[in-house]
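A quick aside before the break. I want you to see a complete sequence-to-structure record at least once, exactly as it would be stored in a machine-readable document. Don't worry about memorizing anything.
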Amino acid sequence: MKSLVVAATRAAVAALGGALCGCGTLESSAWNIRQLHEGDGSPRPVAAVMSGFEYGLRTALGELPVLDESGADPEGKPAGRVTNPRRRALAELLELEEYDSRDDDARWLQAELAAWLAVEADPMVERLTAVRLLGRVAFVLGDVAPVAAPLAPEVDPAESSAALLALVRDLGAAARAGEAERVAELLRPFAPDLQDRESGRRLLRACALLTHDAEGSARAVLARAADQYARRVVALALREALDDSRRPVRAEAHRLVVRVEPAAAYGLATAAADRGDTDDLEAVFASLLAIGLPAEDASGARRVEWLRLFTLHSSGDVFASYPGALPTTACRCLARFSGAGFSTLRSEDWVAWFEGSHGPLEASPVDASPAAADSAAAAEVQP
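That is the input. The structure line, written in tokens, reads:
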């Protein structure tokens, strides 16, 4: 009799879930995103996708493997062919993006999944959406430094996986018992800076899920750890996106990294200029227009080098399709940061101004010494 009741309940769940397929939730979107991708980020044409209503009921029935990383199908929900897995995956990612990143659960899921898809997703539009979501999460988290983030030491994947599984088991017991000090002790060997992107994602997911079972102050410890792992995976994913093979993704990563880590702007700009990447360079310049020059670059020798860089890239037909918007953006940067007192899109005017104020327009390495900074500052105030 019990088996008949369970079977009938499952049938009702499936029927209602199909009828309410438009009702999504944060958790169901995350579930469907995992279902619609292989581990390498490629689309999965056969998947056990479900609506938010069906997901909630199946979770209540205990059918969903909460910490299963394999994407295994839930009991009683056979995988079905998805008509357009790429489109459905993008729709689910856009749904995930709609949630407020200031909410803990939303932020943690967004960080974990976007850090995966920004690097691994096959469709460019999905990868680009994930990079954009990483940027928003980074702003909410704060203290995210993709360029300055230390690289993780190499570890054996099998040993790492075994250690993580043992950690999750012990963490669960300590969290449910409300043993905050024990939770902190267990996490100590798994410092965020020691994790690569994949291990950081798994630790983030485990800590985020265990906050719901944790008692007392153990929840606060897990929540802080989840945010730390989120910062780590967001930083690593954005750094990888800076070198993406697809120009739009790479340019978007440059735009966002300058905004979350302004100190990295000059290095990104000069690297883009050296390789002749006008899209990346324009993205850096455009972000500077939005946020201003970094405080450490706003005076002295580094400021002069920024002005030199802007001037060097202000030439060309600003209405031509190549080099795109770079000359226009460079001229706008000069109008804002030069203090020249005029605004123009004529490159020759800017070249004449720079050479009259700072000498010949030629590429030169930055001398950031105190003496050079004092000399540059004195030159700027001369009539």
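Two observations worth writing down. DSSP finds 17 helices and two strands in the chain. Residues 261-381 form one domain. We'll return to this after the break.
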